Amino acid sequence: MRILILGGTQFLGRAIAAHAVGLGHTVTCAARGLSGVAPAGARLVAIDRNRPDGLAGLARERFDAAVDVARNPDEVRWALAALDGRVGHWTFVSTTSVYADTVTRGQRADTAPLLAPAEDGPYGAAKVACERAFGRDTLICRAGLIAGPGDPTGRFAYWIARLARGGEVLSPADPEDPVQLIDARDLAGWLVRATRAGLSGTFDAVAPASTRRGFLDRCAVALGRSYKVTWVDPAFLDRHGVARESGPFSLPLPLPDTIGDASRDVSPTLAAGLTVRPLEETARDALRWLEAGGGPVTGLTADEEAGLLAAWHAERGYRPTGP
User: Fold this and answer.
1) Neighbours of 62 (CB within 10 A)
2) Options 2.40.50.140, 3.40.50.720, 3.40.50.620, 3.30.479.30; which CATH number does 2-148+181-205 get?
3) Which among 18, 160, 171, 175 is placed 20 to 30 Å from 57, CA to CA?
4) What is the residue extent of each domain of the chain?
């Protein structure tokens, strides 16, 4: 197949391109080329999606399939117009952030309510607007938290780096709250298989949920580290200004008011061929990537976490014992 990746030089897009090349497909990555390079065996075509005519470098080319990961609705519409009649099958990588109900557990992609679309709105609302630009024969993949080697967000990497240090680990309670993520390599493999099969429809693409306790325990065991977790009330984190999910001074796991976004019913996606590797494998590979000089780690620094733990214990009259 001739596959076009609109992007293809960073994380998921690059993983899709690399997987497709590995299967012998002819892959074109169309991007500015500023965030990375195309994987070996893929062709890079320079484009500028900030302009309506920015895909001129692909003029007259035809593709059996195309994958788009954009978040800007104009970019999506311009690409659809520029490539009209020259792409056999479209896949759009959206996000589980499109959902309006972030509390109810076990929701499915085919019935869960969506945010109102917004051209220049927040990430989730903009992705809804992007989805609506595509036809009914498109594969809409609503990805959850994407993890593993190559992650430029540093969210999953925070917990891997933190557990690798061992000791007392601060985590938002409740330990039984759900956590969902997907290894980028698993998502890439499924998207290529689905593209080859011409799959259409809307699917949530994450692994089945685990608990927060299970997530931390399994990663720690995989890394060969011992640790003790201190479960901290989210209200305490709010009082101390700890940000949610990503960025500096944050804890990158969902808190209770976004639990619905971490407990999707993904049985339709599993039935459609998604397979997921063990969390332990993703954790070990991510640590090796970090130790080899991989990407960023976002979240609390060691000193910030120690200060929060001290404040938490002080509020409860805790006095450590020792020599």
Assistant:
1) 12
2) 3.40.50.720
3) 18
4) 2-148+181-205, 155-179+210-257+278-315
